[in-house]
Amino acid sequence: MKIFCKNTGSYVSVLGGEKVIDIIPRLGRELDFSPICALVNNKTEDLCFPLFSPKQVEFVSASRPIGRRVYVRSLCMMLYKAVLDVLPGATLSIEHSMSSGHYCRIFRDGAVVEVTTEIAGELMLALTRIADSDIPFRRKEHLTKDVADIFRRQGLDEKVTLLDTLHELYTTYYRLGDTADSYYGPLAPSTGFIREFDIVPYKEGFLLFAGNPEKTEEMLCRKPPQEKMYKAFTDQLLFNRVIQVKNVGELNMAVKNKRTAELINVAEAMHSKLLGRISDEIAARRKEGGAGIVMLAGPSSSGKTTTAKRLGIQLMTNLIVPKLISLDDYFIDRENTPRDESGDYDFESLYALDLDRLNSDLTRLLRGEEINLPTYSFEFGRRIERERPLRLEENEILLVEGIHGLNPELTSAISPDNIFKVYASALTTLKIDNHNWISTSDNRLLRRIVRDNKYRHISALDTIRRWPSVRRGEEKWIFPYSENADATFNSSLIFEIGVMKSYAEPLLRNVPHDLEEYAEAYRLQRLLSYFEPIPADQIPTTSLLREFLGGSSFHY
After folding, report:
1. How do residues 61-106 score in pLDDT, each as one tens digit?
2. Which end of the chain is more exposed for a tag (fewer CB within 10 A), N or C?
3. What would you report as the CA-atom Rg of the chain, rounded to the nearest whole angstrom?
4. What is the C-alpha separation between 401 and 554, in angstroms, rounded?
5. What gap in Å lies between CA 186 and CA 176, rounded to an integer?
6. 3 state DSSP class of 173
7. For the range 163-168, what are the long-range contacts, defined as Cβ-Cβ under 8 Å and sequence gap of 24 or more?
8. CA dist., res. 448 & res. 470, Å (int)
C-alpha cells in the first residue's frame, strides 16, 4: 500500500496499520522540519493516526496555525496534569486568550487559588518534568457513559454536562499517565514535543504562554498585560455566571429548557447598557470641551457598523446628534494601494488610506467649516467625487467607523483631547468546557463566512482562504492599539454560535474535500457540532447579529 506525501511530492510504501509517524524516517532529508501533526486527506490528525488504506499525508510543523493549535492543546493538557501534581484536588479553568497567551485560573473547594510567584514556579517545574519525561498522549475511544464517569471522578463537571447534551454513543479522549482529558482536536504524540512555555502570574490567576519550538525568539515576544481587555473579559464572565451559562453544555441545557428567549433578551439588554455607558462617557467628555470626534475601531466582523449605529442612538438620548462616516471612503485608488508580502493588495494597511485628506477634513470639521466627503467606489477601485457636504453643528458629533481608529498615526494632526476612542470586538467568553475555549477569531470567522455569503456572494472557501491575510493585518494594524481605547465594547452574544450554526454548516459543507481549506472548514464544523441549534426568529431586528444574518432594521 502507498500513501502520497504532499511535502515531498512522492509516494511512500506503508504496511497496513502503520502510524503516520512511522513514515517520517523514510523521508530522510526531504522533510526538513520536525512535524507535530499531519493533514490526512486534508483533516488534521495526530501523528499516531493509523493507516489502513491509501491516503494523502501532509506533515505540519508547530509554526503553522494548524500545528500551533496542536501545540497549545497539548500544552494545556500538560498544564492540567501539572496543576493536579502541584495542587491535588484543584481544578484548572483556561478562560480566554489574552496578551498572546491564555488567561487561566485555579479553583479549590469553590474558591480561587491566587497564583503567587512561588506557585507559578512550582507549576513551571512540574511542566518541565512532564516535558522531560516524554510521556505519550494516548488517544482513547470509549462508550460516552464510561468517559463521563471518568471525568466525573476527576471533577470535570463541565465536560460531563457537555457530554450529557451531545448524546453521542462513543467519545474520544486522551490519557496522559493517569490523567484523562478531552480536546476538540488532536494532540502531539508525546510531551517531549512541547518544550517552549512560560507561566506569568497575573491578577488572581496567570498567563500561559506557548512558544514556537522552531522560532524560540517568539517566546520573548509576549504582549504586555492588556488591562482594558482583561476588564472587558472579566465583566462578561461575571455576566455569564449571573445568567448561569458559562459553557456550551450549560447553553445547550438552557436551549432544551426553553430559556432561549430569556438569554437573548438579557444579552441584548446588556449590549444596550454597555453602549449607554459609553455614550454617557462621551457626553461627559464633551462637557469638558473635548470629544468632537468618536473613533470606533475593531477587527474584521466585530460588528462595527451596527455598533456605530446603536451608539449613535444612545448619543441622541444624551442630546448629541451623530454624523456617521466610514474610513472606507478615504481609501486611495487601488493602483496605489500597498502590497502585502504575497503581492496582493493590502487593504488592511493604514497606508491604504488617504491620511492627508482625512486629517485635513477632520481639522476643518472641528473648526466648524464645511467639507465635501469623498466617496470610494469598490467597483471601480477609485475615488469618485460627488456632492456630499458635511458640517458639524454645535450639538453634533462625528462618529467615524474603521479598523484603524485607535492608531494615533491615523489622526496625527488632531489633538487627542478631541478624539474619544472605542474598541469593539467579539470577546468570546463562552467556553466549551474547563480546558477548551472558543477563540474570538473563530467566532468572527463564522460571522464573516455567513455575512460574505449572504451579502457579497462569496463562498466559505474564499472567506477561509482570505482569512490568514486578514489575521496578519489585524495583528499588525489593530491589536497593538487596542489598549489606546477610552472604552471597550464586547460585541459577542452568548447565544450567537447556536444561531449561526444553521447558517454556517451548509456553507462549510460546500468546501471541497480535495483543497487544503477543507481542514479549516472541517474544524469549524466540529466546533459547531457541540451546539444545540437556536432559531433566529427570536433575534431582534436591532441586534448586532442581524448585521451578519440579515433582517436588520438598520440600513447598511
Report:
1. 999 999 999 999 999 999 999 999 999 999 999 998 888 899 999 9
2. C
3. 25
4. 15
5. 13
6. strand
7. 163/249, 164/249, 165/248, 165/249, 165/252, 165/253, 165/256, 165/532, 166/252, 166/530, 168/144
8. 11
Separation between Cα atoms, residue 183 and residue 526, nearest integer Å: 11
Number of neighbours of residue 220 by Cβ within 10 angstroms: 9
Q: Is the Cβ–Cβ distance between 162 and 125 less than 8 Å?
A: no
Q: Are 338 and 352 in contact (CB under 8 A)?
A: yes
| pLDDT on residue 517 | 97
With CA atoms as reference, report the closest residue to 115 among 207, 206, 210, 231: 206
Alpha-carbon distances, residue 100 vs 210, 446, 486 (angstroms): 9, 21, 22
SS3 406: coil
d(CA 284, CA 4): 65
E-only strand ranges, 211-366:
293-297, 321-326
Q: 3-state class of 400 per DSSP?
A: strand
Q: Is 234 helix (H, G, I), strand (E, B) or coil?
A: helix
> What contacts 325, CB < 8 A, 6 or more positions away?
373, 390, 398, 399, 400, 401
Say if residues 120 and 201 touch (Cβ distance below 8 Å).
yes
> CB–CB of 356/400 below 8 Å?
no
d(CA 459, CA 117): 49
Measure the CA–CA gap between 481 and 228, rounded to whole angstroms: 11
In the block, residue with C-alpha cell 511535502 = 7
* Secondary structure of residue 14 in the 3-state scheme: coil
| Amino acid present at 458 | I
C-alpha cell at 152: 466525573
Residue corresponding to grid cell 488532536: 186
Write the CA distances from 495 to 158, 260, 303, 391, 535, integer angstroms.
18, 8, 15, 40, 10
Q: Tell me which DSSP letter residue 224 carries.
A: P
The model's pLDDT over 106-153, given as tens digits with 9 standing for 90+, comes to 999 889 999 999 999 999 999 999 999 999 999 999 999 999 999 999
Q: Read off the amino acid at residue 124.
A: M
In sequence order, the β-bridge partners of residue 468 are: none
- At residue 215, the pLDDT reads 56
Specify whether the backbone of 436 is left (phi greater than 0), alpha (psi in -120 to 50) or beta.
beta
Convert the pLDDT of each residue in 287-314 to its tens digit.
998 899 999 999 999 999 999 999 999 9
List Cα–Cα distances, 445 to 341, 346, 508, in angstroms: 22, 19, 12
| Residues 107, 113 contacting (CB under 8 angstroms) | yes
Q: What is the tally of helices (H) and strands (E) in the chain?
A: 15, 24
Cell representation of residue 365: 470639521
In sequence order, the 6+-apart residues with CB closer than 8 A to the CB of 1 are: 13, 14, 15, 16, 51, 53, 54
Query: Under a CB-based contact definition with an 8 Å cutoff, are residues 78 and 179 in contact?
Result: no
Burial 325-336 (b: 16+ CB within 10 A, else e): bbbebbbbeeee
Pairwise CA distance, residues 482 & 479, whole Å: 5
Crossing angle of helices 440-456 and 460-477, rounded to 10°: 130
* pLDDT for the residue numbered 556: 80
Q: Are 56 and 63 contacting, i.e. CB atoms less than 8 angstroms apart?
A: no
